[in-house]
Amino acid sequence: MLRLLARGSGHHGLTEIADSLGLARGTAHGILRTLQRVEFVEQDPGTGRYRLGAALLHLGTSYLDANELRSRSINWADTLAARSGQEVRIGMHHDGAVLVVHHVFRPDDSVQTLGIGAMLPLHATALGKVLLAYDPDLSAAARKRELTSLTRRTITRAQMLERVLTEVRGQGWAGEAEEYMPGEASIAAPIRIPGGLVIGAIGISGAADRLCDSAGRPRATLVRQVVQAAESVTTSLVDEN
User: For the IclR-ED domain, which residue ranges apply (predicted)?
Assistant: First the structure.
């Protein structure tokens, strides 16, 4: 049941859950009530749909520390940088921001600064949007705080941020164009541990005109490369456990 809740949009109705698992509605409801009591599952009071609870999500983030996440994804980060031609960052949530635990330079001769240890805003970066999208507790806290405007494109309204996070969950990746820095864009996808919990994100960043098309949408080829890298890291984590 937890694996089911970790897939797709992350919001599932009782009938959908019961039918997917071949359970009677009463049985499924009883299991969900038990999981709710230990805060592994939450129910949306408005829609009645179920999602993973904050307690389980926070348990997942303690599964890997920053060094382990970096060591297990470093090879895939190098490959992504080579394929995309862009710089690659791997991040995880720490103290209300994105902590960059690994950074691969863009494979050219330009001057670049190592970003390991940098703290990036959750609401204005693709890495941050991924982390917010899959952690209801974290996203709720973010919506209650002031969303700092960093550029004229930065999302500063909680309602708009929630719409974007819903899109992220639906499509399985996040993007942003000039929301964090003018002229820059980024694309990211979730890294999961066994069971489907999101514990980090991997993404690329670079010039907006190289990452986005004329309509400002992330280029499909780059999105596929980022998603494939995230899936490769996730598969390696599953295989090792």
Answer: 55-239
Per the structure block, which two tokens stand in for 80? 């992504």
Given a cut of 80, is residue 7 above it in pLDDT? Answer: no
How far are the Cα atoms of 7, 99, 177, 221, 232 from residue 151, in angstroms, in the given order?
Answer: 33, 21, 10, 26, 33
Instruction: For the chain, list the strands marked E by DSSP.
Output: 41-43, 50-52, 87-94, 97-104, 119-120, 174-177, 184-192, 198-207
Task: Give the pLDDT band of residue 239 (cuts 50, 70, 90).
Answer: low
- Predicted pLDDT at 89: 96
pLDDT score recorded for residue 197 = 86
Query: 128 CB contacts (<8 Å, ≥6 apart)?
Result: 91, 97, 98, 120, 121, 122
CA 154 to chain CA centroid, nearest Å: 18
How many C-alpha atoms does 77 have within 13 Å on its Cβ side? 25
Domains of the chain (ranges; CATH) run 2-52 (1.10.10.10), 63-239 (3.30.450.40)
